[in-house]
Amino acid sequence: MAKLKLALYWAAACGGCDVAVLDINDKILDVAKLADIVFWPIALDFKYKDVEAMPDKSIDVCLFNGAIRSSEQEHIAKMLRNKSKVMVSFGACACFGGIPALANFTSRAEIMQRAYVEAPSNENPNKTLPQTVTKVAEGDLTLPKLYDNVLTLAQVVPVEYFVPGCPPTVTIILKVVDALATNSLPPPGATIASAKTLCDECDRKKENKKISKIYRTHELIPDSQRCLLEQGLLCMGPATRGGCGLQCISVNVPCRGCFGPPAGVIDQGAKLVGAIASIYEANNDDEIARMVNEVVDPAGTFYRFGMSSSLLRGKRPQRT
Amino acid sequence: MKKITIDPITRLEGHGKIEIFLNDDGDVANAYLQIPELRGFEKFCEGRPVEEMPRIVPRICGV
Amino acid sequence: MLKKMLAQFGIEDQRLRLSWVSASEGERFASIVNEMTEQVRGLGPLSLRDGGKHG
Q: Among the CATH numbers 3.40.980.10, 1.10.340.30, 3.40.50.700, 3.40.50.12370, which is that of A4-99+149-181?
């Protein structure tokens, strides 16, 4: 079999997904045997103009991580889509918006103000903000336009596969590599993780108890054998796709949903609100009010990784 | 002025582009490094519970 | 809880209402629906982020 042409790219990302690919350690040599990597900014020196020069559909697989929140990111996503036979939405940011999608609670203007003007460590007396075109003595400098909304990859280009996780686990990455090597990818549209919820995968003791208090994570050291939700910690398990190998649960930390909603669930946060409401023992208005008080940041917790792929997508724009 | 663009800069974490302007002698008249990304952690962490910060801010850089 | 979460999305309290109405309470059902319709109409269109374009 001829070597595959593989591209990896990062949009509004942190580099974690690229490092996760490198975390397969010596198996990267198997990848090198299987594929020529034609674009991978973290590791190789190919430029955008090299990609522009490639014929359409000449890249076999593109692993695209990071959310879309600028004109450049959308442009490169579309370019790589044209040049690639298969586009993989890699990691929580590309699949659901990820942590950068928490910016959907705010706006581009507020972010610029905070980052460039208000931040205490700034030295910016003229309150200069980045512009899409800046004139300097030698000519014009350009920057991409930042969007108000953070989008998933699939919201800007068609995508064949989804690999969730922040970052995807080594096990799952190896599954993807293996599927490429043996030409056994699932039908397009598939998410490469478990079809069931994290709860189904979790081996902690579940007693189907109701809870009478919700604790913030610093208020309780949980028992490492019992279900975290039953101990009063907010765990996204019931509304999160499994397949991560319980990386957080196994260190006694509740899930925050980085694998996105399970199969068949349209809105991860809404699913979790239902799950919490059904296990909380609240029989009158006072008890209900207490429960609501105990959940300090419902939207930011239940949509921690999934703002872009949620139904509401973010805070309503301010009325002018 | 002749301009050489390096886009993207590679083999580090993050996005960047460099524009190098050359004068008529072919010497560098000026060079600019631009960072074409901004995610806004400084703003969207506001309103989140403090004990969640260790689960949010490591996503600034995954390296 | 839903109201608290929706408030974080900038969606007003008055857009959501929970009432228990039995099949035999026809008049009550009609008046609740009318009240709610007027209430939401007064609040104006929802105008979601991104104009509801994606997703």
A: 3.40.50.700
Helix (H) or strand (E) holding B34: strand B28-34
How distant, in Å, are the alpha carbons of A115, A233, A246, A255, A319 from that of A238? Answer: 36, 13, 13, 10, 36
Q: Which chains contact A through at least 3 pairs of Cβ atoms less than 8 Å apart?
A: B, C
Chain C CB within 8 Å of residue A151 CB: yes
**What does the pLDDT look like over B26-55, one tens digit per residue?**
999 999 999 999 999 999 999 999 999 999
> Chains contacting C with at least 3 CB pairs below 8 Å?
A
Show which of residues 22-51 on chain C sit within 8 Å of chain A, judged by CB atoms.
Answer: 46-50
Question: Residue B19 pLDDT > 80, yes or no?
Answer: yes
What pLDDT does A319 receive?
59
Question: pTM (2 decimals)?
Answer: 0.94
Report how far residue A293's alpha carbon sits from residue A280's, in angstroms, rounded to the nearest whole number: 13
Start-to-end CA span in chain A (Å): 60
Q: How far is CA A54 from CA A7, A47, A90, in A?
A: 12, 11, 22
ipTM for the whole predicted complex goes beyond 0.90: yes
